[in-house]
Every structure is written in C-alpha cells, then in structure tokens.
## 1
Amino acid sequence: MEFLTLDLKRCTLVRLGGRIDGSVAPELGSNLRNLTDSDHHKLVLNMKEVNYTSSAALRELINTWKTCRRWNRGDMRLAEVNPNIRKVLDLTGLSGQFIIFDTEAEAVGSF
Amino acid sequence: MPSFCRELAISGRVAELPVILDFVETACAAAGVRAELWFDLQLAVEEACANVIEHAYGGKGGDLVITFTARGPDVVLTVLDHGRPFAPEQVVAPDMSLPLTQRRIGGLGLHLMYQLMDEVHFDFGEGSNTLVMVKRNALADLPPGAAI
C-alpha cells in the first residue's frame, strides 16, 4: 500500500495506492489516525491508484470520516475513485455518505 | 470442456490474505474468467476468509481450504474451515437508509458476499463448516488458448 501525505493550504491530501486488503487495513487506519491525532481533520483521499479494497479498509475509512466530522471541525472526502472501488462504495451505501469528486483539484478546492 | 479445479490449503491468518487473493487471481486467469469479474471473486473470497479468521477461529488461527472450480460456465468457490459455526441469518445487514453515524459497523463483509456472488450457501457440519459461493456465467466465451 502506498500512503503519501501532502500538506496543502486548505486541507491535507493523501494519495493512496495499491491493493488495500485486510492485511494492510490496520496500517491504513494507523496512518490515518496519525493525521487526525495531529489535528489534520480536513482530508482528501485520492484513490486513483487504489485497485482493490475490502470491508476492513472501509471500516478504517468510516472511522476516519467520523473523526474528521466530529464537532464540525472537518471532513474526509474522496477523489478519483475507479469503477471497482466505486462499486464497493455503492454496494455498502458509502457512496451516498462520502463526498466523492472526479478530480483531486475539485476535492481540494471543496474545502 | 475439461473441468478446472484449483485448491489452496492455508493457515487462517490475516497475514495470509494477500496469498489468498493471489490464488484467486491466478485461478481466474488460468480458468478464463471474464476480466471484469476478477475483482468480485477476490473480494468475496477475502470477505469469507476474513470472517472465518475473525469469527470462526476467533483470531487464534486455524486451517482454511479454498477451492476454485469452473463448473460449466460458472465459477464455484468454496471455503472450508474447522472453527466455530455461526448463524448467517442472524447477522444484520447494514441499514443503508440510516446516516452513517447511526449505522452498525458490522456485517459489511457478509453483505458484500451476498451482493457480489449469485449464490451463497453455508453448511455447518460436525467440526467443519463449508461455504459455497457461485458466480454464474463467469467464464469468457472461449476457454484460454482456444483457437478462434
């Protein structure tokens, strides 16, 4: 799994990549918690290079989303989700809950 | 058409999930599964195995046997374990009508299995449990290597 963080003016951009299965989901969660624990609550996750995700990873995303939105301090938004990942988000009802943008620029600019 | 069957016997540990996913991907390629379905089959198998690892074996490990069979145009995936059985009908599916903040976190894996596969059957026997999942019409029209 690739996890690259960029601190931008409006938010923190995270570029994820690879196959995020149940064996790496804890690492994803830990990395995201490191961000929220250090007051990064406006997050954009660019999913362009993510070719696989399972429910273990989705649970980490849900937890991060909730943490970011607590007390209206921020949000976690997604960008450039490929069709397979989009399908998983649709099947689990998350595409109706997460804000998803077609481009990274739009997602960053939404904050 | 000769039948196609591959089997993976593996230790039921989270660290082995990548091996399981690779097994399904390789079997898909060898059997001639339509490319757009590889993701569905991998995900369904991971969710099934993750449930066995966490719930049937309580995270303490145990044997898993995964089989991939081409049966006519269909793919049949089975997961065999020797852990604690459960009652799938008692697992509550996530309620999509609720806001995310009000939804229970659990049940996502089983829900995905039911959504991704055409048939999902559990058989709980004496000391062993077998999950059978079927994806219909999963094979491409031509077997791999066939002349056009």
## 2
Amino acid sequence: MRVQKELERIPGYEVANHRIDAWWWLVVVVIGFVILLAVRIPDPYWRIIRFVSDGIVVTVGVTLTAFILTLGVGLLAALGRLSKVKLINVITTIYVEIARGIPLLVQLLFWYFAFPSLIQALGRWIQYQPFQRYLANPFAMAILGLTFCYSAYMSEIYRAGIQSIPKGQNEAARSLGMTHGQAMRHIILPQAVRVILPPVGNEFISLLKDSSLVSVVAVADMTRRGREFMAANFIPVETWIMIALLYLIMTLISGRVVAWIERKTQTEER
Amino acid sequence: MNRVPIIHIENLHKHFGETPALNGVDLDIFPGEVVVIIGPSGSGKSTLLRCINRLEDFNSGSIIVDKIPLTTAENINAVRTEIGMVFQSFNLFPHLTVLENITIAQRVVRKRTKEESLEIASTLLNKVGIPEKAHDYPNQLSGGQQQRVAIARALAMNPKIMLFDEPTSALDPEMIQEVLDVMLQLAKEGMTMLVVSHEMGFARAAADRAVLMDEGLIVEEATPDVLFNNPKHERTKIFLSKILH
C-alpha cells in the first residue's frame, strides 16, 4: 500500500488513472445503447435479446469451461515442451504444431463429425460395445475442440513466460536442494505468472470470440440462436447488429477485468 | 585435521560442445578447510564449483562429496542439501521477502515448521547483520545486503560445505567488505569453504590453501602466502602480476 502512495506522487498518475476510467465509460455507453434500443424499439430488439438469452448462457459457459481446461492443459504442454525427456518433448512439440497449423473451424468439424466415427470403427475392431455405440455430445466436442486448439497457443505463452525467468533463479532453487517440480512451483511459476497475465487475458478474449464457431457443430450458442432468429423473422440487419453488440459488451468487460487483475498483481507483488 | 576429504575430485573432465573447460582436475578438500581458487577468466574455476553440486554435468572423472558419489539423481539432491552455494549475481527470489527467501527451502526441502524456519531465519539475519530488512523485498536492498541474505539463505539449510562463486565481483567497492566480514566469520567458525575470488586480503586472512587454475587445470596450490609471494610456476607469476599491478 506504500507503493500506491508513492505511485500517486508520480506526475501523470492522475491522467493514467483517468484513461482507465474512460475505458469503463465505453463499456457503459455500449451497454446503455443496447438498453436504449431494447426499451425504445422493443420490437425487434428486445425480442432478439429474449430469443438469444439462452445462447448467451451457452456462450459464456462454453468459453469459461474451455478456458479453465486450457489453463491446465496448456501448462502441461508447456512443461512437456521444456522437458529434457526427448520423447515427451517430441510428442508435445508435434501436438503444438498440429493444433496451431489447422484452422479451428476444421478442428471443430473433425471432433464433431469424424472423431465419433473413428471411435465407432475402433469399437468394432476391438469388439468393445460402448465404443461401437458412441455418439458425439455437441457440448463435449465443442469444448474438446476449443481446448485442444487453444491449449497449444496457451502452452507457448506459458513457455515464453517460464523462459523469461533468469536461469539463476532455477539454479539457486536447485542448489538449495529443491527438486525440479518444487523449483517450478515455488520459484519459477509465481514469477512467470506476472509475465504471462496480459497475453493469457488476450487469449481469453480470443476464445470468447472464437467460441462462436461452435455454432456449426450443433451447439446452440449466441451465434446459432441469432441465425435461428434471422431464419424465422427475416430481419438480418437488426439481428446481427444486436448479436454484434452483445459480443462487444462481453469482450469489453473481459478486457477491463483483465486490465484490473493485471494492475492488482503488478502493485501487490512488490 | 581429519585427513578424510569431504570433497574428493579425481581427473575431472568437462567440455562445452567443442570447447574444453576442465582438463583433468584433481582436488581434495578436507573438513573445516577454506580453499580459495584464483585464475584468469575462462580458466574453469566457476565450472569446477558448479560441477561439485552438479549445476553443471561433467563428462568424465569422479566427484565424491561426504562419501556420496555424484552419479545418480537421488544422490544429487542428497548432495545439494549438504552444499550451500552463493552466486556472483545473488539470485535472490524477487517475489519473496527477505524472510521468505530464507525460509522457503527450509519448509519445502527440510520440511521444517513455519515457526522453526522463521526462528532459524531471524537468527541468521542477525548473524549477517541485517535483521531490520526481514520484511523488505530483494530489490529494496543494496547489493551487499542482498549477498548477505543469499549467504543466510544457504546457511539455513545447515550445509556442511559452502561454495562461493565470485561472491563480491558484482558489488560496488564499498560493499565488498561487509560481505567478506560475514565470510571471515564463517571461516572462523570452522565452515568448510571453497571460494572462487580474487580478494587477496580475504585469502590471506582466512584461507588454508590457495589454488591457481588455468586452462582447465590446477597449475599450483600452496598456502596463500607462498602462492602470492613466492609462486613457483611461470603462469602463476604472470597471472599475479596482472591482478596485483
């Protein structure tokens, strides 16, 4: 908290703080605009919002679930890429190259349409009943597809963060008798977190936007619900303006939350 | 003096790719001994030190520390808890306070309780003379203070041996003495110490032996007085004339 006081003495601090507030104003203005539309012109805008509201829940749910899984899987992949064990290193490197080299849309189509058929074929081959009857759950496949793809990007962020910590930190920890895992957990990762927080926040926002792609694999997210509404009412302009605004509200809020967390850790940790 | 060496190094070879770093080093360190290693840069002093706790792998030869040969992974962790190391660049953990820097390995590696580790830490902070800095972060400390915390951090593990890799080279001149004083104190208490340093004053005051390394080999070893005043080898004379002007 002493740091906070010192910060306030730096010329220009006020201005910087104001800019942050200005960003929140943008969020308020967009939300206000949406409310204004919904109240002043309830038909069609309020109807659109009501129609896609369950899709909003799906979009947020899919995004959050995939993001939390990505944080874990990405870390494992990063540790794999940094591993001295050749086999683990090669496997994770191949995974990252594949997941980053194929369009996310194609990956989602693969998981939903091709993967279940492959499991069924495998079931017939090894005579295993549950595999033969395997049917894809759209949600599970959407989350699997997003996690598979985004974990690869996330692992690169983790890797860069871990590698940005000076080698001497690991050497000091190891010289005190810590194992590789203990040094990672207590010394390297806590320092890496601050480095990777901004890019991880950006990944979250990208994931939120890319979650609209799951609408092609039978998940009734906001985008899919928008298409359904348009098909039933033939008012594309109003529909897609409203869907776009709803996405914008979510990404703007996410961006502000990320910036807030960032500032909190930067001041707290020193 | 006990004549069973606590560190036994035999015919140690190490190369970085094509570049040779150690070309067959033999060295015995006995319990309670203070040995200072000098030599031109690139002579393999630091590499030798880093091989002793296996921060660096070696290519052939053997190192036995306190009867434990440095071969398998379990041995390496056992050996590292017996050896404290102090680095040229301090390498304090910047995200932890001074006190946490000294307690973390005690709790994680030695499995001590929080209270016990804090007690040991504050005793050691008193010993290195900066108890008032306990709750500061490393970047709020001067270089000399940071290096003294680094020494306390290593001592907290109750090592039998302390390795110092150019502990004063990164310090401003006015801070060198405060670190050397702590090291002198340690030497007086009978700690086994292996020190890479060109601080002649420290070597004369504390060291039992001084060793000159060049091109990955031990060229000459003797008591500090003999080595500094009456060196036998030409290479020792040339090196000393360069650093003593």
